[in-house]
Amino acid sequence: MRSKISKRCKHFKAAIYGGFKEIKGVWTFTKIMAETPRKGSKTLMQYDNVDYNIGLSDSFFEQSNLKR
Questions:
Q1: Which residues, in sequence order, are CB contacts of 26 under 8 Å at separation 6+?
Q2: What are the residue boundaries of the structural domains of the chain, listed by start?
């Protein structure tokens, strides 16, 4: 699947998603190829240990805990 950019915007980056796997009933991409055409650079991101429903408390996602 290739991401789409609005025609009004300059094309800065493109991403291709792949390596789809079903993990605990959730279809998940495990690879992303990000490309910066103007620079001619590419970055491959690969996810090897994806897991869902691991028992995190709801409080983990409160705004006060979501800080950089």
A1: 52
A2: 14-65
Q: What is the pTM of this model?
A: 0.61
pLDDT tens column, 56-66: 999 988 888 88
CB burial readout 7-28, b (16+ within 10 A) else e: eeeeeeeeeeeeeeeeeeeeee
58: Cβ contacts below 8 Å, ≥ 6 apart:
none
Round to whole Å and give the CA distance between 59 and 32.
Answer: 30
Rounded to the nearest 5 degrees, what angle is found at the Cα of 14, between the Cα atoms of 10 and 16?
160
**pLDDT by residue (tens digit) across 4-20?**
555 566 678 899 999 99
